Structures are given as structure tokens and as C-alpha cells.
Amino acid sequence: MARVSTRNGLGPGGSPTLDEVARLAGVSRATASRAINGGNRVSATAQAAVDAAVRTLGYTPNPAARSLVTRRTDSVALVVPEPDERVFTDPFFAHTLRGATRVLAERDVQLVLLLARPGEEEQRMLRYLRNRHIDGALVVSHHQSDSLADHLAALDLPCAFVGRPWTSADKVAYVDTDNVAGGREATQALVERGCRRIGTVAGPADMTASVDRLDGWYAAMRQAGLADDAVIHGDFTESGGERSAAELLARHPDLDGIVVASDLMAAGTLKTLAALGRRVPDDVAVIGYDDLGVHERTNPPLTTMRNPIREMAEQATRLLLEQVDGERPAAAMRVIFPPSLVRRETA
Fold this sequence. Notes:
Number of helices: 13
Protein name: DNA-binding transcriptional regulator, LacI/PurR family
Radius of gyration: 26 Å
Shape: elongated
Pfam family, one: LacI
CATH topology of the largest domain: Rossmann fold
CATH superfamily of the largest domain: Response regulator
Keywords: DNA-binding, Transcription, Transcription regulation
Oligomer: single chain
Number of strands: 12
Strand content: 15-25%
GO molecular function, one term: DNA-binding transcription factor activity
Largest sheet: 6 strands, parallel
Strand order of the largest sheet: 2-1-3-4-5-11
Helix content: 40-55%
CATH architecture of the largest domain: 3-Layer(aba) Sandwich
Number of domains: 3
Structural class: alpha/beta
């Protein structure tokens, strides 16, 4: 078998080796390795010498060797416990992905997308996380049954959630918006408009954002002294919003206002109202939630609560990277963004 020459510290094809870098920098091989791989216990003088040697020789670190030193994979996972058909059609996920990748672009860190339906796929995803194929996890659209915060806290894996988790909220980092305040403000806007029979198409009952927005709706209705019996849960999809609105209006045909927990469901609600011959906003005023571009294709343009998801994803990614870098413990990190009402023509 032919042997590869490594004379003069050069690797296959004449590429410089770590030994060559160490010799040129005048330091030990171990010091050169620590300087290149981000280790500690390297003086400023030695670091500068190694950096200069790397530039002079055009040395490129071996990723596998670097991983052995740093125990880092230079990758993080975006964990989405949802079916892929929803992930690729809901603008929520597109904005989340843009926010995360914008922050990661500043670092040499890759993003791995992990999708998992409940059951076998979820167990496979947990095995992947348990085996530390990534340095940390960014979790979005989590449900009560997936218990992801519990699993990740038990693994002691750096993680950050977009949205408050159901459990272990004191053990993991998360970024959220004040969904209770958002639900309350949306409802108050309809009350101030003069609506007196206000219903709501809430989100899935197993997601904290849905529960919080519904709590805000209840609070505003009670404060206004209005009946709070017109409630139905949807699934955060446009077709689901269409079906849920039809059922809600069949039960409560006298509604003059509807607060909808997502813009996609609000778009479906507008379709139902149009099919029933109900004018918006003259007969029924509608307010959605998210402001992620759905209003551009609704007729009339949708009034909504702005959910700053891109900013939330950016902040959550920064919190995750701070944990990966060992700068702060996870349990100390909470960031809450305020929602805001964006007035258009449906209310």
C-alpha cells in the first residue's frame, strides 16, 4: 500500500498540519491546538503567534479533530413537533426560520431542522438529541403532550423555546410575547368599536399561546360585562379556521365581532363570513393574531395583533448560543415581547 508523505509537517497533498503551525508559531502542539480550537489557557502572545501562523500557512482545522477538543458539533437544531405539511405552509415557521438563520449567519453554526409527529418520529428525534449530535436546540410550536421542556431539561442540553413551555418553564430559557395582553387588547378594540356579541376562534387547547390569548379574551369580555359563551377551538390552519367559524356562527348567529387566535384561521373565518353573506366589518368585525403577511391576500385587509415572531426567534437563538458558549445558565433567561394592534379594514 502506498504511504502518504508527511515530511516537513505537511499532510496529504502538501497541506499544512498542526505540527507545522506549532513550529512556525514557536509554541507546543497542544498550545496551537487550544488556540485554534477556542480552548482556554492560551496567552495573548501565543494566540497572536498561532493566528499569524495559520494565516501564513493557510491552515484549515480538521473538523473531526476540533470536535474532539471542543466537544462541539457547530450545529444547533430547530425542533418543530408538527407535521411537515403545516411547517411548509404556515408563515409562522418561515419567519421563525428567517429569524434564527439571521443570527446563526453571524457565527459558523449550521441549523438542523427536526420535524416530528407524536409517536415513533418523536422518539427518534429525542434519541437524536440525547446522542448530542447538535450543540443545542431551539424549540417552536410545542404542545402539552410532547413534554419537550422536561426532556431537554433532563438531558441538560442547551435549549431555548419560542413561546412559554407548559412545564419546566423555570428550568429552560424561553422568549414569548404577552399573549394574555394581546387577546385582551384585540377584544377591547371590538368592544370600543361597539360590538356587543363577540365570539372567538381560539387556538389548540394544548398550546400555551392559545390558552393565554383566550384568557385575555375572557378578561376583556368580563370587564365589559358581556357574555363569554361564544368560544370554539381551531387548529391554527386556514381550513380549520373556516370550519371552526362555520360552527361558531351556527351556534351563535348573532355575533357582531370575532377575535381569532391566528391570521390563518382569521382568513378562513373571512371565507365563512363571505359564504354566509355577512359583510365585514359592517355586520361582523374580525381581528386576527400574528401579522405575518396574511393580510395581503384577505378581503378586506385583516386587522390583527402583531406577534413579533422574527424578533422572538432572533432573541431565542441568541439565548441558545449564550448557553452553548457557557455564558449564562438557562434558567435565568426570560424575554417577553409586547404585542401591538395593527388596524386595517376588518375592524
